[in-house]
Design brief:
Helix content is about 25%, strand content about 35%. It is α+β, with helices and mostly antiparallel strands. Strands 1, 2, 3, 4, 5, 6, 7, 8 and 9 form a nine-stranded mixed β-sheet that branches. The mean pLDDT is about 90.
Length: about 150
């Protein structure tokens, strides 16, 4: 999955990325944004469809373009680039719905071996943050780049 991804454009600071999802529903522009939250060094990963008329980013749109794995792989690639520019950042991510959070969990699970080579991944349970484990329901995810050796 990680190698099958879309080409994207990025802002100079590598905080915003745009790419087009192409499939049976047409071409839909997707946007990934990394926004620093009120805790220094912590960033929210925002992701959604860009409304063509208004430019508004909707994280509730359902594209159904048949390319969810390729889209997730593209989002993952933006994370690598973002972390190269911001190596000490901690990125927090959750889906806008439980179904999307589950989709993100499945994407992490399916690529965990590759992801864990470069990142420490935590999942948020009802109780606390813990190292990511397969087959556990999480509310959110935290990603930090492993120290370079």
């Amino acid at each position: 999955m990680i190698n099958d991804r879309y080409t994207f454009a990025s802002s100079p600071d590598l905080l915003t990325f745009e790419f087009d999802s192409v499939g049976p529903k047409g071409t839909v522009t997707k946007v990934v944004q990394y926004t620093e939250i009120n805790v220094k060094g912590f960033y929210n990963l925002g992701f959604g469809d860009k409304e063509p008329e208004s430019g508004y980013i909707s994280d509730l749109s359902v594209t159904n373009n048949g390319d969810s794995q390729k889209v997730l792989a593209t989002v993952a690639r933006t994370l690598y680039l973002f972390m190269e520019r911001h190596p000490d950042a901690i990125v927090l991510a959750t889906g806008s719905t439980q179904a999307r959070t589950r989709l993100y969990r499945m994407g992490i699970t399916n690529n965990l071996t590759a992801i864990e080579q470069d990142f420490d991944v935590l999942g948020l349970t009802d109780a606390d943050w813990e190292p990511f484990r397969k087959n556990v329901t999480y509310h959110a995810f935290s990603v930090r780049r492993k120290p370079q050796q």
